[in-house]
Protein: Probable membrane transporter protein
Organism: Ruegeria profundi
Amino acid sequence: MQIYLPIAEVSVNAFLLLGLGGMVGVLSGMFGVGGGFLMTPLLFFIGIPPAVAVATEANQIVASSFSGVLAHLRRKTVDLRMGTVLLVGGLTGAGLGVVVFNYLKSLGQVDLLVTLCYVIFLGVVGSLMFIESLRALRKSRKGIAAPSKRRQRGWVHSMPFKMRFRTSGLYISVIPPILVGLCVGVLSAIMGVGGGFIMVPAMIYLLGMPTKVVVGTSLFQIIFVTGFTTMLHATTNYTVDIVLAVLLLIGGVVGAQIGTVIGARMPAEQLRVLLAALVLVVCGKLALDLLIEPSELYSLGTAGGH
């Protein structure tokens, strides 16, 4: 069933969009990521202009993340205090990111910037996560307990403005969480992602949070940052396609509930290996597209024919 998207100005199969939304919703519930790192490139692949894909995907992430958070709140695996601190940085970063996005859009360079950002970030984060996850998986199979050196993460604990995070069992400075939130907010605005693929590893390895509360806390922060980003894009760029957003949203909400159930039954090490592999696959496809397309300028004329 073909449906016309008024802002994107293309016709797309409605069931394809529902399916994509559902698949990304499952990922959201399983891994605590908004799923934008996968959905936004997929939208590029089916012919949605990058500027519209970025702004609209931020909207869909709000819904799938909200659906996932509800499930985690029922299990009491959300650190609301940590989520609020991350949020302070996230909202600031989102505002800065939209300013940069608008400037590059006025120069006509936004499509290339978005794709390059994806290739660089996904490549670096995916590789680091994959190596770390395989190491953790190997240790768990050999029966070696993972070293619990979280308490002595030097510089994080020596910084001022400390706060106690009871749900995570931490007493650390609020500066690192605010900086993590700031980076994720900028990425959310420029790349149309929730930023979970960076936030989840940062919360585990940098802040030392227990894996069981990381997913729910990440989703809690993502809801507000991506909601704010969507609002800014809608009011300054007019690139939010409501029809596209609704179709992705319906699939995403259903998928997130399924993903949360699957995630609760799988070991954390296996989840991280799967997420890292997915990140690397998407990165590879985007990098290939950049190399195969002869020129951004000339590819615009044939975008509808892909």
The chain has one domain: 2-145+152-300. Confidence is low (pLDDT under 50) at residues 146-153, 295-306. Residues 2-145+152-300 form one domain. The longest helix spans residues 110-142.
